[in-house]
Amino acid sequence: MIRLNAATVERLPRYFQILRALRARGREYVSSEHLARLLKVDPSLVRKDLAWMDSGLQKVGYHVASTLEKIEGVLGMHNTKEAFLVGAGSLGRALMGYRGFSEYGLKILAAFDIDEWKVGGTVGGIEVLPMSKFADLVRRLNVRIGIVTVPAEAAQAVADEMVTAGVVAIWNFAPVTLDVPDNVVVRNENLAAGFALLSYELERALNIRRSETASGDDGIEN
């Protein structure tokens, strides 16, 4: 398997989205400059990110279809990965109803919750089961991915149960840092932190605009 640095891997899904859109529009080749403009990075970084491939042609660019296929291979999208979701609240139900996961090779087999009012319902064809069945079904179905969409105060207990049952990769949407063994992979999606970064960038952009406006006013005579 190709070994890439973490920063490159973080950008590969963005390349995937762009290339897929270009392929849908019938684009055959794309230059590093065009990719860089869409990603808002330097073209040299694009070339560095994609240096492990042999599809780049000088003055022509990257072959869209083959580049997309290779990225899919590196990210493991060709092999469907099955997951269990714990926490059938608003966020959990939104993820259960999202059809785009299949394009990335993810299939949520079932959801689990301790709330008896939620158990037995379905969202997007995915059934909500009692948490008491979680561990047994993980072992029987050999599920290796767990998705955590419970409140922060319940997340660690859920993660502990996942690890005990045999889950080796956790996609965590709870705003808390999970304590898991070193051999368990955790991906944190902190929506509040994401908004905080957006808020910071917004303030920065507004300050730049205010500065530009103030500079423009300097030359105005009354």
Tell me the name of the CATH class of the largest domain.
Answer: Alpha Beta
Regarding quaternary structure, how should these chains be classified? single chain
Overall mean pLDDT score?
90
Tell me about the largest β-sheet.
7 strands, mixed
Number of domains: 2
Q: What is the CATH superfamily of the largest domain? A: NAD(P)-binding Rossmann-like Domain
**Helix coverage percent:** 40-55%
CATH architecture of the largest domain: 3-Layer(aba) Sandwich
**What Rg is obtained from the alpha carbons, in whole angstroms?**
22 Å
Could you explain the architecture of this structure?
By secondary structure, this protein is an alpha/beta fold. It folds into two domains: 69 residues, Arc Repressor Mutant, subunit A, CATH 1.10.10; 112 residues, 3-Layer(aba) Sandwich (Rossmann fold), CATH 3.40.50. Helices cover 45% and strands 18% of the residues. The protein has a seven-stranded mixed sheet. It has a three-stranded antiparallel sheet with strand order 1-3-2. The longest helix is centred in the C-terminal third of the chain and has 27 residues. The mean pLDDT is 90.
Can you summarize this structure?
The protein is α/β, with parallel strands linked by helices.
Keywords:
alpha/beta; Rossmann fold; 18% strand; 3-stranded antiparallel β-sheet; 45% helix; globular
Question: How is this fold's topology laid out?
Answer:
Layout (H helix, E strand, L loop, with lengths): L5 H19 L4 E2 L1 H8 L3 H7 L6 E2 L3 E3 H11 L6 E6 L3 H7 L9 E8 L8 E2 L2 E5 L3 H8 L3 E4 L3 H14 L3 E4 L12 E4 L2 H27 L5
Parallel strand pairs: 4-5, 4-8, 5-7, 8-9, 9-10
Antiparallel strand pairs: 1-3, 2-3, 6-7
